[in-house]
Structure formats: C-alpha cells, structure tokens
Amino acid sequence: MSPYTPLTTRNLSNSFRHFILFVFVYLSALLAWTTPIKAANPFVRHLFTADPAARVFGDRLYVYTSHDQNDATYYDMVDWRLFSTDDLVTWKDHGAVFQLKDFAWAKKFAWAPDAIFANGKYYLFLPTDRNKIGVAVGDTPAGPFKDAIGAPLIDYSTTPEAGSEPIDPALFTDDDSSTWLYFGCRQPMVVKLDPSLTKLAGPLQQVVILDPSGQPVPRAKPDKQPPLPRGYGEAPSMFKREGRYYFVYSNGWAKDSTLVYAIGDSPAGPFTYQGKVMNHVACSTHHGMVCEFRGKWYVFYHTAELSGGNGFRRSVCVDELTFAPDGKIIPVTTTSSLK
Ligand code: FUB
Predict the structure, then answer these.
(1) pLDDT at residue 4 above 60?
(2) From the CA of 170, how far away is ligand 1's center (Å)?
(3) Domain spans of the chain?
(4) DSSP-assigned letter for residue 161
(5) Are 129 and 106 in contact (CB under 8 A)?
(6) Taking the model in full, what pTM does it have?
(7) What is 14-330's CATH number, 3.20.20.70, 3.20.140.10, 2.115.10.20, 1.10.10.10?
(8) Of the listed 51, 129, 155, 168, which one is catalytic?
(9) d(C-alpha 315, C-alpha 44), whole Å
C-alpha cells in the first residue's frame, strides 16, 4: 500500500464527514457543559410555594405544592398549585389545581398535598383545617379535580385514633399494588387504603421509628433539641429502593432540624433511624420528598430564603440526591442562587 494516498473525491468526502462529526461532538460536549442540569433554587419565584410532593406520571415530573400567600402571617393557605417539567430546567405553572372551597366541608388551612395515579385516575390527598384529609379525583395530573368522597377520608372529630393533627398526607404504592397513606404531626401514622383510594382498608397504626439499638427515638419538640436521632415532627413520605422502605420525615422545628430518614422491611415499619437526608435550611418548617426521575434521584424541599426568612412565605427547591453502596443516603448539600 502506498504511504501516500492521493486526495480523491472519496477521501475528500470522508475527511469532510470526519470534520462534521468532530464539530458535532465538540458542540454537544460544549452544550452539555454549559446547559444547566436543573433550574436554580428556588425554582418557583413568582409566588410562594411550600410542601412539595414530587410525582412522575408518564415521562413528566409533577410537583404539587401548597401556596403561601404573599402577605402571610400564618399558614392560612387557600389553594394547591402544580408545576411540571421534562428536564428540571423549564417548569410549567399549571396554576391552582384545587381550592379549599372545592371541598364543601373544609374551612381553612390548605396545607401539604400529595398525588397518586390509580384506577386510571389521578387522586389528590389534601389536608384541611389542621384535622382532616380529603381526596379529590381527576382524569389528568392537572385535573380538573372534584371531591371524590363528599366528606373527609380522615377526620379527627370522628376518628380520634387518627391522632390529634392528621395533616401532611403522603402516599406510597408497593409492588403488590397495595397503597399506604402516611400522615400526622408529632404522631406519625400509617394506614392501608382500599383499592378505590376513598376508603381505609386496615387499622390506623402509629409508625414506629427505632434508634440503631432498637429503642424508640425521642419525640421532636418545638423548643428542645435532643441529640440525634431525633423523633418525628411532621412531613412523612415513603420511597422504596432495592427492596427497602425509606421513611423520610422532618425531625421537628429546632434550629438544626431537617429532613431525616429511617429504613424498614415493610411499608408499615418498624423503621430504623439512619441519618439526615439533607442539611438544615433556613426555614421554621421542613417538608420534602425524595423522588426518582429518569434514573436520577432528587430531594424536593422548601426554604424561606426568597422571603428573607419569613417561614410563612416559603419557596420550593430541588437538589440531586445520591446513595452510598450500602444504600445510605449521602446527605445533600443544598444549593441556592440567592446566597
Ligand atoms: O404548610 C403548612 C405546614 O407547614 C405543613 O403541613 C407542614 O409540613 C409544614 O411544612
């Protein structure tokens, strides 16, 4: 073979093809380098939003939130909001998907929502009045939704065994299709739901959280800061990874409180305390959810940074979350473009 190959038309077109390929690869790498992997935190800034519940329906990520009022001096919210995205960079605002007045029996406090897909429909689980949980149903993730029962699913006044503050509903569907509802402030509760999702299918049980020596963890208190592991405050959520059940919750309202987690072998527990999900953020409440989207894991949470530290005017945020080889969560260092 000749060491010198003349520049034939064929070689020329090959060289051109290589050049185009090189430019394409170079530009793709440049684009990947400069394209943000998610919007800067907080990712909703045109209104105050809190208590994010992140759910994947189809190939899209939906975040249902409560909605703090611009002039709020308490958690006197009146509607629930929805945002969705394909890429965590561009978010669509779906507006208010349900309002307190859509439940004829509810009076106040449109607090932390959750959503689930079942029976070909989308169900919202919504706490009101600080003592009730209602269910709304719709045909799409963004509704329109209507009251699915015409009465609360959980009501402390008729079901005191639900605990004195049945708020913060969170749902989990296991591989066997059973659906579990977690809720409660200070007292974590779990109950199996009927497949209709509009009835309870089992006893209301307290969620048991143990320390690594098998002792129940002490309860969270507003003004005290017992050492970790500290007990349950509010904001439960559940996810399953590699056959294990991760119970995520806020460990209260102390200066260093945050989202923590415990792991168990069944959705009803007991769960053994593991550690923090993320660092403490500037806010008097901590509420979030861990969610897998397109092969990556994320923690959604809220902060009060955008309002300058007003805990009644919060903003939802998201950061990527990773696991150690033994399945433990590597505590997330939160990001913000406001710092
Ligand atoms: O948003 C009102 C309440 O604040 C929620 O129910 C709690 O989880 C806390 O975030």
Answers:
(1) no
(2) 12
(3) 14-330
(4) G
(5) yes
(6) 0.90
(7) 2.115.10.20
(8) 51
(9) 7
Residue 209 has pLDDT above 50, yes or no: yes
pLDDT at residue 37, rounded to an integer: 78
pLDDT digits (tens, 9 = 90+) for 126-164: 999 999 999 999 999 999 999 999 999 999 999 999 998
110 in contact with ligand 1, CB cutoff 6 A:
no
Beta strands in 5-141 (DSSP E): 48-57, 60-68, 79-85, 91-99, 114-118, 121-128, 132-138
Question: How many angstroms from the chain centroid is the CA of residue 67?
Answer: 15
Q: pLDDT tens digits for 29-63?
A: 554 555 667 899 999 999 999 999 999 999 999 99
Where do the H-state alpha helices sit in the chain? Answer: 9-34
Entry field: residues in the chain: 339
Beta bridge partners, 62, equal 55, 84
Q: Tell me how far the alpha carbon of residue 111 lies from the centroid of ligand 1, in angstroms.
A: 6
